[in-house]
Amino acid sequence: MEKQILTLGIESSCDETSVAVVKNGREIISNIIDTQIPIHEKYGGVVPEIASRNHIEAISRVTKRALEEAKVTFDNIDVITPTYGPGLVGALLVGVSYAKALSFALNKPLVGVNHIQGHIAANYITYEELKPPFLCMMMSGGNTQIVHVKTYTSFKVLGKTRDDAIGEAFDKVARVVGLGYPGGPKVDKLAEQGIADIELPKTHFENLDFSFSGIKTAVINLHHKNPDINKANLCASFEKTITEILIENIKKAVKQTNIKTIALAGGVSANIFIRKAFLNLQNEGIKIYMPDLKICTDNAAMIASAGYYNYISGKRDNMYLNAIPNLKL
Fold first, then answer.
1. Confidence at 153, pLDDT banded by 50, 70, 90
2. What distance lies between CA 76 and its chain's CA centroid?
3. pTM over 0.90
4. Domain 6-119+296-312 classified CATH 3.30.420.40?
């Protein structure tokens, strides 16, 4: 019988304070998410200083709830795994500092986790059978990249955005058409009522890189020039065009690598239109995995899962672990 390893994941990279207990990297025992969306809504986006303060207030309470829900104590935890980047530096520091204090006080191993690796690992929780190698279409508020997941702990970025991340583009479009923050789900909802009948530009590169600033600017200009434009149609056209860009690049990646297994990851992978478009690729013999909607956005269960694979591969951190806001995969 395999040894049961319980990982305590800690996520505080942006505006969610989350703590989770995960068994053997695959099974959620508890996953508490304390979101700050209502606090930042009135500012139209995340205010880093306010986010950091709220993490400080929430983290002990959220940890206590995660342990209670899992019906375990700190004694049962085998390893502590915080997100240490990328993200907002002040927000990251709260989780990293708290994890280091726990590790020191409890004499438990500390293993830092890359937030992007966490998003990829959300698929391991949703699909017990999923194993590397596969391609990952990583799309979130701060990142858009195509990743070759070679093993549980080794990755190669095949293409990435040269400007805005996809989630950033959604948020900016939402702000322009007056939908508020967070923009992604609101654009997706309004787009359902529209017809994608507006021609928007696509930026193409020889390689697998992305650019979303052109399409975002085109939407902003269209709205400024014609304030009475049908907003549902504009959102539908934006969503359709941006999805076509993703699909074109992922098809190129499949051709280059000959890997026909694709996992979606990141907050934008919760987008219904994008999910449907990727599922259509299954008609072309490509296997598609997508995380359960509950764990697409930032949460500690995905961090605990990634942390488990780092831990069993021998990774250990010490008290010098620091927040790295622009950490690369």
1. very high
2. 28
3. yes
4. yes
